[in-house]
Amino acid sequence: MMMQSQPIQPLRSNNPQRQSVGVYECEVHLKFRMIEEGQLPTDREELLEMLLEAFGYGGDEYMEPLQVSVTAESVDEVEASPEMRRQLIRLRNSKDLA
Fold first, then answer.
1. Could you tell me the sign of the dihedral formed by the alpha carbons of 53, 58, 61, 65, in that order?
2. How does pLDDT run across 42-93, given as a tens digit for each residue?
C-alpha cells in the first residue's frame, strides 16, 4: 500500500495573534477494494459519499486500501473563485477569528 501525505495547517491556531485563514488546494487519490452487498449507486455524489464513508472506517476484511495519496498546499487567494474570495474576506472580518 502506497501512502503519502502532507500535513494540512489548521485554520485556527492556539496562538490568538497567529490566527489566519487561507486558500488551500487539496488533492486526494484513493484506490481500494471493497466488498459491498448489491449494486453500487449510479449517482456520482451518492457513490462518493458511500466510498468515503467506507474508507473512513479503515481497512478490514471488507475493504483493503491499495493506494492513498493526499496533498494540500497553500495557494494565492487570487486563484480562488470570486465567491470563495468573498467568503475569505467575511471570515477574516469575523469576530470569531479576531
1. positive
2. 899 998 898 888 888 888 888 888 998 999 999 999 999 999 999 999 998 8
Q: Which residue type occupies 46?
A: E
Of 31, 32, 30, 29, the C-alpha closest to 61 is: 32
Place of cell 487519490: 29
**82 Cβ neighbours under 8 A, 6+ residues apart:** none
Give the strands of the sheet with 23-34, arranged side by side.
2-5, 63-75, 23-34
Q: Taking the model in full, what pTM does it have?
A: 0.59
Task: Write the burial class of residue 72 (CB in 10 Å: 0-12 exposed, 13-18 middle, 19+ buried).
Answer: middle
| Nearest-angstrom CA–CA distance, 18 and 11 | 10
